[in-house]
Design a protein that fits this description.
Layout lengths: L6 H20 L7 E3 L12 H5 L4 E2 L2 E5 L4 H5 L14 E3 L1 H6 L7 E2 L7 E5 L4 E5 L10 E7 L17 H4 L5 H17 L2
Parallel strand pairs: 1-3, 2-8
Antiparallel strand pairs: 3-6, 4-5, 4-7, 7-8
Helix pairs in contact: 1-6
Function: May act as a carbohydrate transporter.
Family: Belongs to the early nodulin-like (ENODL) family.
Organism: Salix udensis
Length: 191
């Protein structure tokens, strides 16, 4: 084997390591949440979704997943078990939410077979109900969607706390150490 034959592959490893490092450092954190309405109870009647939503923070970019299907129905999607046209998820205004009026929905989010997913992509109040009388059995939920909180800011560095150890606590040091270690390992393997 020639001495220079490993040059191309080691260059490729270095380039890949630099690319991974750049992605880790430069890509902002994404933290959208996919909320399963009712948690393990799902989208069904006789559940108080006001209590379920209480204390939860819904942010712009989150999703609501409304599924009232059990495991057997999910594993056998070709049979709708009579639920396809019953358990729906309708977005309505505040007045229709309060009165369980489904005659003029703003949007029908029903997709069937447990695929009812609602994007919460506007900062506002959302009101959802199920029609055909299910709303009166508790199948309704109101959520307030807000912008995510700003990321925490670093406290100002005053002269007394400006020790060398505080410099090494930045978010860039640990990824840099891993990249240097990976590059060193790749260098030693291709020698």
């Amino acid at each position: 084997m020639e001495r220079g034959s490993g040059y191309g592959s080691s260059t490729m490893v270095v380039a890949l390591a630099v690319l991974v490092f750049a992605m880790v450092v430069m890509v902002p954190e994404v933290s959208a949440t996919r909320w399963t309405v009712g948690s393990n109870m799902g989208w069904t009647s006789n559940v108080n979704y006001t209590i379920w939503a209480q204390g939860k923070h819904f942010y712009n970019g989150d999703w609501l997943s409304c599924s009232g299907l059990d495991l057997v129905q999910i594993l056998m999607p070709r049979t709708d078990y009579g639920l396809k046209n019953q358990m729906d998820i309708l977005e309505v205004n505040k007045t229709d939410y309060a009165t369980c009026n489904s005659e003029h929905p703003l949007h029908n989010w029903t997709r069937g077979a447990g695929r009812d997913v609602v994007p919460l992509n506007v900062t506002r109040d959302y009101y959802f109900i199920s029609s055909k009388g299910f709303c009166y059995g508790g199948m309704k939920i109101a959520v307030h969607v807000e912008n995510p909180p700003p990321p925490p800011t670093a406290s100002p560095l005053n002269e007394k706390s400006g020790s060398p150890s505080s410099i090494f606590t930045s978010q860039y040091v640990l990824p840099t150490v891993f990249v240097i270690g990976s590059l060193w390992d790749a260098f030693l393997r291709f020698l």
